[in-house]
Amino acid sequence: MELKAVSLTLHILSAVIWVGGMFFAYMILRPVAGQQFEPPQRLTLWVAVFKKFFPIVWLSVILLPLTGYNLIFSNWGDFSATPLYIHIMNGLGIIMILIYMHVFFAPYKRLSQAVAAEDWPTGGKKLNQIRKLIAINLSIGLVVISLAALGRYSPILI
Fold it and tell me: Are 157 and 147 a contacting pair, CB within 8 Å?
């Protein structure tokens, strides 16, 4: 199979898994967990969910730039020839990765420590911080997916 086809497949799957996971967590799991569980159970649940989800996000965070840049260079040769929507996707993707890295290394680490210490108020504050950052990343991710699907059809973005 051609490297470009493999790159495109891995790129799309990585984006769908990461953004889809955020959509599920934010829109489905979060409201249900908030209704069903008291803070100790809810915070413990979230630490367990993130412990499973974040390694997959790390894989996406590595694959998306690698495959994206491979696609750019194999399709256009360099950045100067790429359409505007690709530049926007690249910039937004970098912002998403930086937000994710902040979530992982700061509030998630502190959430895990708070839950281990049974410090529920601090854990709640850290989870709320993560919730806000995931809402931002989810919004950006949906824009990036829209650009990927529609960018080549917009005379403004080409």
Answer: yes
Question: Going residue by residue through the chain (158 aa), what tens digit of pLDDT does each one get?
Answer: 699 999 999 999 999 999 999 999 999 999 999 999 999 999 999 999 999 999 999 999 999 999 999 999 999 999 999 999 999 999 999 999 999 999 999 999 999 999 999 999 999 999 999 999 999 999 999 999 999 999 989 888 77
Angle in degrees, CA 148, 150, 156, rounded to 5: 110
Is this prediction's pTM over 0.90? yes
User: Mind giving me the DSSP string for 39-76?
Assistant: HHHHHHHHHHHHHHHHHHHHHHHHHHHHHHHHHHHHHH
Cα angle 87-92-81, degrees, rounded to a multiple of 5: 10
Specify whether the CB–CB gap between 2 and 52 falls below 8 A: no
Q: Give Cα separations from 42 to 17, 35, 130 (angstroms).
A: 23, 9, 14
Spatial distance between the Cα atoms of 86 and 63, rounded to a whole number of angstroms: 17
